[in-house]
Every structure is written in C-alpha cells, then in structure tokens.
Amino acid sequence: MARKYKESSEEGSRRTRPAISSEARENQLINMALDLAEQQLKDGTARSQVITHFLKLATEKEKTERELLLLQKELVKAKTDALEAAVRNEELFNNAIKAMAEYNGEGEDEDYAEDGYYD
After folding, report:
1. Which of 26, 25, 58 shows the shortest CA–CA distance to 41?
2. Please, are residues 53 and 26 in contact by the beta-carbon 8 Å criterion?
C-alpha cells in the first residue's frame, strides 16, 4: 500500500530530503530564501531591502558587471589552459632533445649498459 503524506495547510511548507553536502545545503537555503522573498513580494509584505535587492539585479550596470565577471572567468580559464599546454610542450621538447641526443650517441643508453654490451 502506498504511503500517504499529510498535506499541510500552507503551500510553502513541503518536505525536502536532507542535503548530502554543505554545497547542496547552501543551495537549499538559497532556494528557500528566494521562495520567501517571492512570496513576500506577491503579498506586498516585502521589506525595502528585499525590494531594493531585486531592483538592483534588474539594472543595466548589474547585467554588465555579470557579463564582465563571466568574461574574466573565461579569460582565467584560457590562461590556465595555455600554461598547462606550455608545460606539456616543454616536456615534449625536452623528450625530443633527449631522444635525438641518444640517437646521435651523445647520451648513455642505460638498456645497453645493463645488458653488458658496453664493457
């Protein structure tokens, strides 16, 4: 038989499962705060700070600042990728130089020395 849940008289109080991580818990709390602010705005009971917060989010300056932050984030990621690629290229370059030196007989080849070819 299926479980029956008690329905509360309030629409806003619904059961959610416990958060698995602190990040998930933080997201739950943010969502709850947004739901409460939305309800207060609908009811006309929102404080001036709540109204001002959401009005500020709607300004062009705020939108521009968000776009700028996203572009800066992409720039940092691109720089990080470029640095990682430079490190990989340096390793490949050093390996190529080492291989050419061994091919020309300038480096010691440990495999031959261990096998007794060079006595």
Report:
1. 58
2. no
Asked if residue 54 lies in contact with residue 38, where contact means CB atoms within 8 angstroms, the answer is no
Q: What is the Cα–Cα distance from 116 to 101, expressed in whole angstroms?
A: 21
Between 115 and 104, where is the model more confident? 104
Would you list the DSSP string of 16-64? -PPPSSHHHHHHHHHHHHHHHHHHHHHHT---HHHHHHHHHHTSHHHHH
Cα atoms in the Cβ-side hemisphere of radius 13 Å centred on 56: 8
What does the domain layout of the chain look like in residue ranges?
20-58, 68-119
53 closest CA partner among 42, 65, 41: 41
pLDDT in tens, 28-86: 998 999 999 999 999 999 999 999 998 988 899 999 999 999 999 999 999 999 999 99
